[in-house]
Amino acid sequence: MKGIIVKGIGGFYYVRTAEGAEYECRARGIFRKEHITPMIGDRVEIEESGGGRGSVVKIYERRSSLVRPPVANVDTMILVAVAAEPDPNIFLIDKMLVNAEIAGIQPVICINKSDIACREDIEKLYKTAGYSVIVASAEEGEGIDELRAFLKDKVTAFAGLSGVGKSSLLGLITNESLETGTVSEKIGRGRHTTRHVELFELPEGGYVLDTPGFSSLEIEGISAGELWQYFPEMTEAAHECRFRGCSHINEPGCAVKKLIENGKMAGSRYESYKEIYNKLKQIKEWEK
User: Fold this and answer.
1) pLDDT at 65 over 80
2) CATH code for 224-287?
3) Best-predicted range by mean pLDDT among 123-127, 164-168, 202-206?
4) Which of the two residues, 117 and 53, has the higher pLDDT score?
5) Of 25, 244, 264, whose CA–CA distance to 130 is shortest?
6) Are 206 and 155 in contact (CB under 8 A)?
7) What is the rounded CA–CA span in Å between residue 132 and residue 123?
8) In 64-88, which positions are buried (b, 16+ CB within 10 angstroms) versus exposed (e)?
9) Which among 180, 186, 189, 188 has a CA at the least distance from the CA of 208?
10) Residue 221 pLDDT more than 90?
């Protein structure tokens, strides 16, 4: 039977089949020999052994994967920022966007708490960069249907700093179909939070990733010279620079700098690029 791993605890993997049945499975020893560890979100084949138990016998090729949290085949990442209280940290949003781009995951910006403040500046900033932006209010229900449209039939992770309202948005999106408090407890930082990663099935199809959060905001797996590829507004212009291998920092005839002059790239985005570039530049080859 084919299914998706929705949860993993203590060496057991819980696989949900297309028919809605859930099986408690162990992974075959062959995976350990091949240094393959099943991940939440893996599409798998299982063999049933009776009593709601089985074995994972095949793991299909992953479309994407994250290290922290360890999850595979995430299609969409909803990056939740807040319109006010606290003020959005643009640099951290940019770092999360780069991490999503590296992992091959479609990022969507969600500006929550629009009932408190209007942030057309942030909306314009990221729409100019080529991203989808949803303005939402968990308090008033604004933007919830638009969010649901992105989630339908996909595996979606919610990311963002604490206090931005991820749990409130998830409660509305799932129509409270999860156990009371499940989402808020797992995403929150209370003393009794559950630390495992879990996928929850949505009524209209698809899964949301319920996790304590993204523990690493550092950029990993790329060199400084590759960074421009993960800033969508830079990709076309980068090929028009005067010098091949332009870092887009100090070189003359840099087409990327003209983007800023022409209003096609926000200055804050370029500042984020420079800061991440310089940090990546400091990493020695043997540390990568």
Assistant:
1) yes
2) 1.10.40.50
3) 123-127
4) 53
5) 264
6) yes
7) 9
8) bbbeebebbbbbbbbbbbbbeeeeb
9) 186
10) no
Instruction: Tell me what the mean pLDDT of segment 70-94 comes to.
Output: 85
Beta strands per DSSP E along the chain: 2-9, 12-17, 22-27, 43-50, 53-59, 65-66, 71-72, 76-82, 106-112, 132-135, 155-159, 198-201, 207-210
Residues 199 and 207 sit within 8 Å (Cβ to Cβ): yes
pLDDT (0 to 100) of residue 145: 87
Q: Cα separation of 2 and 94, whole Å?
A: 37
For the chain, what is the mean pLDDT?
A: 83
Tell me which of 193 and 31 has the higher pLDDT.
31
Architecture of domain 65-210: 3-Layer(aba) Sandwich (3.40)
Can you give the pLDDT at residue 119? Answer: 80
At how many degrees (to 10) do helices 90-103 and 267-282 cross? 60
Domain range summary for the chain, segments of one domain joined by +? 2-59, 65-210, 224-287
The CA–CA distances, whole Å, from 106 to 23, 59, 100, 165, 262 equal 30, 23, 7, 21, 26
- Superfamily of domain covering 2-59: Nucleic acid-binding proteins (2.40.50.140)
